[in-house]
Amino acid sequence: MSQQSSFQQLQDDAISVALTHSALDIPSVLDSVKSPKAGAVVLFAGTTRDNFDGEPVTHLEYSSYPPLALKTMLSIAQSVKEKHALTAIAIVHRLGIVPIAEESILIAVSAPHRHAAWSGGAEALELCKEKVEVWKLEEFGGNQGGVWRANRDGARGLQLDSAALNEKPA
After folding, report:
1. pTM for the model
2. Shortest CA distance to 145 belongs to which of 122, 121, 165?
């Protein structure tokens, strides 16, 4: 699929990973992992909060290299599914601008028992934050501008310098 496509997906046995520029659809992601073999379904929904480190955030903007990000997401899903004996797993990450209180990532897992579902979902999230090639621009209010950073928890990114961004390489 082209990088401009609104929805890009890879699938394997009871595994689905996707990137989209559209709002995330919680019911369809949950439905994709439901199974008569599963006694537990767990959903994690990561949302855009209105602040970072006490500073107001107006929105987040996510960017990625989709072919590589999807392969990494699929590898994570396959590994977590096998390790935790999950019935199914779905990971969907939103790209582009994500307004306050909207979801940027959904991870849904199903398993025969709750412990495997909880553990598998948590591990999938941490591995996605650690490894998937997704970057975010945190836009702050006022004259502060934005900060690009890897999609990790807690680490402050680098302040954008619009003049440097517009410079052409020598």
Report:
1. 0.86
2. 165
